[in-house]
TrEMBL record:
Biological-process GO terms, alphabetical: carbohydrate metabolic process
Protein name, entry field: phosphoglucomutase (alpha-D-glucose-1,6-bisphosphate-dependent)
Ranges for region Disordered: 1-20
A GO term, aspect molecular function: magnesium ion binding
Entry GO terms, CC: cytosol
Length: 547
């Protein structure tokens, strides 16, 4: 069957952000939009001639437009010369599971259809990203090439074929392409069985341990049910909101203290379960809450790094760890004590890929509720819960006890992120530009708000593996005592601009450790506002979301 060549024209704005191209569903449904972006991906990452049976993995988080987009992607993959495709049943594959499938089957790469934690539905968001053969998000040089290709298009290739039945497991053919609809959970579950001691975890649940897992009507429902309830014997009802829905039940699938409020309230209430956890739209983020004890993602990364050796996969220790720049320095202290390297990368999981591939790090994470390891090349929500469960099973104590003993041993990095969403994009850009100019006037030793400045800059990263350099990754102001303020514009939003302000300071004083985080950081919050002029410029007195 010959490919059909459809004339088209470049559509501006197809520049992948922090994690692939995220736009409104309406944008993706506009004539030629989806097809143009897919053709740009295929043009930029075309399998080399003679690559043979190049396999493409395709799946998404089940959000509105997922199935239609997958049908289009399959036809175009076939028309563009892919020989094989693996598709998750019903079009589902969590982001970490897609990474696992790519790696398990030696695929050329994969298309992950998701806008992650962004809302879904006809008026919500959609997104696509390409992951390479290591299972990880395409690095900047590839996303730049995709953008360039999108601006040079004059046609796209597709086939005239009926839809594939995504609900039926098994093989299908599409022109020359041999495809298979696969169980979205199987490869991932097999991988988790290799990493963790399922017998020990079964004993934990048999002993009455109570987990509450909120799948937020997003993609992790089938994974969490198969693993926690079916494989590990947690009672039915452990997984809540477990059925993936195209609009996530009308909710925002972001596992933070605003959108997972019901879980948070339950965990702070009487008779709370032992562990509360949630994951996001595409299953790569995690929220961890103990009984009466929220664990910030930065702290979770540090605590997991300190305890990972208690799970079989990490029993021989960690090669190194990494965190994104805005993530708190808590994990740095663990790395220092373990005598292993700690890398500081820009925001975006793609920056961990080289470090993981080179074997320089075993564990990595971000303040944005992402934690992962070298088992895949994505952050992984269900994996993070399994690692927490493994630590709790081995240490036979509560989350609160783990947190308290960690802070007693390492001190605490009080940490918060204030998000100011849906700002006018021009106002936000002007704020960042003027703030950069203001920070550039500061010199080491200058005093601000009672602290001495150590450095102020716009963060740039030199990848130690391939030597690539990334600039403009966030404005930071670091003080001599280790306190920091970081300002960044989000690269994942679809409306206006979101300004993220990250605030942190370290303490080893027991009374200060016990302080409420927002109170502990109030002076830095005030200083951040004064320096950026945020309230005056935007009229906003409070952040939209505090995490
Ligand atoms: C993505 C990236 C993460 C990043 C997060 C927030 O996560 O993979 O690395 O930390 O966005 O990015 P930003 O601050 O630019 O909005 P996800 O879960 O949305 O794919």
């Amino acid at each position: 069957m010959s490919p059909i060549r459809v004339p088209t024209r470049p559509i501006p704005g197809m520049k992948p952000g922090t994690s692939g191209l995220r736009k409104r569903v309406q944008d993706f449904r506009a004539p030629h939009y989806l097809e143009n972006f897919l053709q740009a991906v295929f043009d930029a990452v075309r399998p080399p001639e003679g690559f043979g049976a190049a396999t493409l993995v395709i799946g998404g988080d089940g959000r509105y437009f997922n199935r239609e987009a997958i049908q289009t992607a399959l036809r175009m993959a076939a028309a563009n010369g892919f020989a094989r495709a693996l598709v998750g049943r019903d079009g589902l594959l969590s982001t970490p599971a897609a990474s696992a499938v790519i790696r398990a089957h030696g695929a050329f790469g994969g298309l992950i259809l998701s806008a992650s934690h962004n809302p879904g539905g006809p008026d919500g968001d959609f997104g696509i990203k390409f992951n390479g053969s290591n299972g990880g998000p395409a690095p900047e040089k590839v996303t730049d090439a995709i953008h360039a290709a999108s601006l040079a298009l004059d046609h796209y290739l597709t086939l005239d074929t009926p839809d594939v039945d995504l609900g039926r497991l098994g093989p299908f053919a599409l022109g020359e392409l041999q495809g298979e609809v696969i169980d979205p959970v199987a490869d991932y579950l097999a991988l988790m069985r290799r990493l963790f001691d399922f017998d020990a975890l079964q004993r934990l649940f048999a002993g009455g341990f109570r987990l509450a897992f909120d799948a937020m009507h997003a993609v992790t429902g089938p994974y969490a049910t198969a693993i926690f309830e079916q494989a590990l014997g947690a009672p039915p009802g452990t997984v809540r909101n477990g059925r993936p829905l195209p609009d996530f039940g009308g909710h925002h699938p972001d596992p933070n203290l605003v959108h997972a409020r019901a879980l948070y309230d339950e965990m702070m209430g009487p008779d709370a379960p032992d562990l509360g956890a949630a994951s996001d739209g595409d299953g790569d983020r995690n929220l961890i809450i103990g009984r009466g004890c929220f664990v910030s993602p930065s702290d979770s990364l540090a605590m997991l790094a300190a305890n990972a050796h208690l799970a079989p996969a990490y029993a021989r220790g960690l090669a190194g760890v990494a965190r994104s720049m805005p993530t708190s320095g808590a994990v740095d202290r663990v790395a220092a004590r373990l005598g292993i390297p700690c890398y500081e990368t820009p925001t975006g999981w793609k920056f961990f890929g080289n470090l993981l591939d080179a074997g320089r790090i075993t564990l990595c994470g971000e303040e944005s509720a992402g934690t992962g390891s070298d088992h895949v090349r994505e952050k992984d929500g269900v994996w993070a819960v399994l690692l927490w469960l493994s630590v709790l099973a081995a240490r036979r104590c509560s989350v609160t006890e783990i947190a308290r003993s960690h802070w007693a041993a390492y001190g605490r990095n009080h940490y918060t992120r204030h998000d100011h969403e849906d700002l006018d994009a021009d106002v936000a850009r002007a704020l960042m530009r003027d703030l950069a100019a203001r920070l550039a006037t500061l010199a080491p030793g200058d005093r601000l708000g009672g602290r001495a400045v150590r450095l102020s800059d716009d963060f740039a990263y030199l990848d130690p593996v391939d030597g690539s350099r990334s600039t403009g990754q966030g404005l930071r102001l670091v003080f001599e005592d280790g306190a920091r303020i970081v300002w960044r514009l989000s690269g994942t939003g679809t409306v206006g601009a979101t300004l993220r302000v990250y605030l942190e300071r370290y303490t080893a004083d027991p009374a200060d450790i016990a302080q409420d985080t927002q109170a502990a950081l109030a002076d830095l919050v005030a200083l951040a506002d004064e320096l950026s002029g945020l309230a005056a410029r935007t009229g906003r007195s409070e952040p939209s979301v505090i995490t």
